[in-house]
Amino acid sequence: MEKEIGFDASRRRIYERCRKLSAAGLIAPMHSGSNQFEITAKGEEYLAGELDAEDLPRPSPRVV
Description:
By secondary structure, this protein is of the alpha+beta class. The chain has one domain (about 1-64). The chain contains three helices and two strands. Strands 1-2 form a two-stranded antiparallel ribbon. Strand 1 (about 25-30) and strand 2 (about 35-40) form a beta hairpin. It is globular and about 30 Å long.
């Protein structure tokens, strides 16, 4: 992905962000134990502007 769009982030950083988004219910692993994620219905609502981030649970500091 980095080479395709000039995105500069480590795999670890991306995984940390995915864990936070997952804890908020915006994405979910595609399969049990998978490192591949998909956007949930709640994530779609957020992207469409139908859900305020203030209404989402705050991830625990232990999540990352």
